[in-house]
Design a protein that fits this description.
Blueprint: H1 2-74, E1 81-89, E2 97-100, E3 113-116, E4 119-127, E5 132-136, E6 143-148, E7 154-159, E8 164-168, E9 181-184, E10 196-204, E11 213-218, E12 227-231
Antiparallel strand pairs: 1-2, 1-12, 2-5, 3-4, 3-12, 4-5, 6-7, 6-9, 7-8, 8-11, 9-10, 10-11
Length: 235
């Protein structure tokens, strides 16, 4: 009878045991999945925070690098400059201006030159108490008296509302080559002598014209302009 009972009940006991084990396995998997999802959410939050801190650190490093360039530049020139941040740009394709966060209260006046360590940015054309408008050298109304650094050929850098500028009034007989640097001459009484303006990209000479057609690439990348230096009146 015991053998018969065991033979009859054993399959049922085995089925019950397997069912209980299967159910327990499902519950363990479910809880592990829930814990994994929660852990995944927490890890994503931590990763997001770490990336944010990394971006802030990189921004601080870049700002520190720009300020170091400004310090090195201002220590090499005798004039007094104040650092300013670019807070707005004119979206119009017909005007190339920016607005900075320094104005009359900081000693900025109309006509003040604006620079960065890479070269000339432009000139102040409007001044408010705490803000100023800068006309970039790429604007068609801008003009900088300049010369070729190596040959000392003189001309004028004119804006054309594009990323590049033109070097005009260079005579056809003057030998000018691509790659040469254009610097300010100081004769316009705005920009000090020897400041970088740009590098010559292309030179075209036409026998029927008195002057050469010269295109230059500005030393300043205006699309990435964030901080500038403005000449001020020391008070």
């Amino acid at each position: 009878l015991e053998r018969v009972a065991i033979s009859v009940t054993s399959p049922f006991q085995l089925m019950v045991t397997r069912t209980i084990g299967f159910t327990q396995s499902i519950w363990r998997t479910y809880f592990m999945t829930v814990l994994a999802v929660e852990e995944n959410v927490e890890l994503k939050a931590q990763l997001s925070l770490a990336m944010e801190n990394k971006n802030r650190y990189e921004e601080m490093e870049q700002e520190n690098s720009r300020l170091k360039k400004f310090v090195n530049f201002t220590s090499s020139v005798p004039d007094v400059y104040v650092a300013a941040q670019v807070i707005a740009r004119d979206p119009s394709p017909w005007v190339k201006t920016i607005i900075i966060d320094k104005g009359d209260s900081d000693g900025v006046i109309k006509g003040s030159p604006v620079l960065v360590s890479e070269g000339i940015v432009g000139q102040i054309i409007k001044v408010a108490n705490d803000y100023s408008t800068v006309l970039l050298i790429t604007d068609r109304n801008s003009a900088v008296d300049a010369l070729v650094q190596n040959t000392r050929v003189r001309g004028m850098v004119k804006g054309n509302n594009q990323q590049s500028c033109t070097f005009v009034y260079a005579l056809r007989k003057d030998e000018i080559k691509p790659g040469e640097m254009i610097v300010s001459s100081g004769l316009d009484q705005v920009f000090s002598k020897g400041l970088k303006v740009g590098r010559i990209l292309d030179v075209k000479t036409t026998h029927s014209q008195l002057f050469q057609d010269i295109t230059i690439e500005t030393s300043v990348d205006f699309d990435k302009l964030e901080d500038v230096l403005v000449f001020i009146n020391a008070r």
